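W.,

You were right to be curious about this one. When I first looked at the sequence I had no strong expectations either way, so I just let the prediction run and decided to look at it fresh. Below is the sequence, 277 residues in total, followed by the output.
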Amino acid sequence: MLMSGTELARDIVQRASEKAAEYTSRTGRKPCLATVIVGDDPASVTYVRMKQNRCRKAGLDSVHVALPASTTTEELVARIRALSDDPAVHGILLQHPVPGHIDERSAFEAIVPHKDVDGVTTHSFAAMSFGHNEFVSCTPGGIVRLLDAYDVEIAGKHAVVIGRSPILGKPAAMLLLARDATVTICHSKTAGLAEIVRTADIIVAAVGRPRLVRGGWIKPGAVVVDAGYNEGNVGDVDFEAAAHAGLITPVPGGVGPTTIAVLLEQTVDAATRQPDA
């Protein structure tokens, strides 16, 4: 059975849109998301454009900052700090990845916590890990919402997260742990990966390697969340070979829509939480 994120995302965006309209009626302003992109990577450009379009459809404003690939860390940090200081901007998204010469972590940390609607700062990760009502990383947050929408039992289950990035693998593990799953985090240097995955009730593939997870790695009835997206609309799971999974997300149409929906929802929440709201 497929776990489609499309209908869930539509519901999340609809509620966010209603909340945005109420905020606009009360304040005369729209919640505003600032998107920052460095360079002209085609996939990143397309993804940012998609987010801007979804903002408009949901009744949000968007500000787009496009910087050349030659931008330095210092220049990027300065632009993000300016957005952090701008009262008209309620949320800030720095599109990942940035060019290799930029210190991405320094750029993320330039986002003030109350505008970190993508959940990428150290503050947001710590707050999320301790269960505080802060902004979650959008893709992991969308994954948990997707599991809930399909009535997947998380408590007491063995969840294997493949990937340890600070904006996907690690926060996904923390959110599952908070829901009482027993979590194993695997990565590129994990020995015996296939054997570990075979023990999983829930698999989150988030490593960025096409078709890494083979059908034979998945025990019958397991829930498979493919958070990978590779060239050619291919995920991190060999989709055709995973027919014996109990539930599986398609690529595209699974995790992607919920990621954007959570981003818009958290942008509206950021607007309503700020002092002048």
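Here's what jumped out at me. The chain has two domains: 28-114, 138-255. And, maybe more interesting for your project: The chain has a mean pLDDT of 95.

Coffee later to discuss?

I.
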